[in-house]
Amino acid sequence: MNKKNFAPTLFPLNRDMQKTWFVTYYDKAGRKLKKYGRLNHLQTLEERLIEAERLIQEITAPDRIEKERKIGLAGQMSDLLEYKRPFMRKKGYQSYSSVLKGFARWYISEASLKKEVAQGDYIRYLHEIGLHKNTIRGKTMVLKGLVNQLIKKGLQTTNPFEEEPLQKKVKAQSKLPFTANQVTRLKSYMLEHDSQLWDAVEFLYYLYLRPNELRQLKIEDIMFEEWKVYLNGSVAKDADVIYKAIPVPMRSHILKYASYPANYYIFSEGGKPGATMLSRDHISKRHKKIMTALNFGSRYSFYSWVHTGVKNAAMSNIPIKQLQLQKGHSDLKMFNEYLKDLRVDDCEQLIADFPSI
């Protein structure tokens, strides 16, 4: 292969601003590779040519570029993180490192275009590329914390992440519970087209199980004499041993499982218990197909059956503490917030029985 073929080349050759820009080159093994950098985020020809030159230098002189990476704010933050690494949990370090690498790539590119990077520029850049507010908030907290530690050490005087106020975390919106009419429609359809799926629905509705817990349940986990379902630490999401009480309306429906071998999975292939565990999203996907067939929107999902069970039980005046234990929430305050999301605090009694003046 001719040596000049290894030289990086900027495309498009005619520098058309309407086309995708990239630098193509060959590695030592002869493989053709591409680098995009921030080429397609820049608006002027001059800025793109400067960024292209930086990419070409990164390809042809990686040692020098690596040395430059260690200069300035991004380098100081990187050094600080490596110093802290022995005292951090593995997942924590990986999370911080990922955030810092994203900032470092932007910072080095931005610093090559202008002498001084203005405060708040990176946060504004994250908004421009369309990241969710919660994602931006998380990245900001990590970077702000690292720079504050540099300030305490006297290595920085200002924090570029102080100017932009942290966005208030946007609360995730729960899937809606089903109404009584919707339950009737879904039950009728499932019993006709997929009766095993309706069995799965009952486990979510009465026991508040997560779909991934459901698929791992075995016959031996049903304690018929005590009318409880046992979830060991490897099955339960939070690695705790959990016992779920089986309500009376469900008991007659699960007696059919008593005749199967204890080591069989309750939900397996062929619509009945068996030795094979279903794949992680198998049941959820079957439920989604039925939802699509019946024209349900995206605000509903397989997990909506848990919300439906909790809401119906709460509206039937079952003590909140008992529902909290069955759901598995660690404290009552957290569970009360969950009930608010389900609109259980709709004040029906207040509306109906409020005394007239």
From TrEMBL:
Q: Which InterPro entries match?
A: DNA_brk_join_enz (IPR011010), Integrase-like_cat_sf (IPR013762), Integrase_catalytic (IPR002104), Integrase_recombinase_N (IPR010998)
Q: Kindly provide the name given to this protein in its UniProt entry.
A: Tyrosine-type recombinase/integrase
* Origin species: Parasediminibacterium paludis
SUPFAM superfamilies xrefs: DNA breaking-rejoining enzymes
Report whether Secreted shows up as a keyword of the record.
Answer: no
* Annotated keywords: DNA recombination, DNA-binding
Q: Where is the Tyr recombinase domain?
A: 173-352
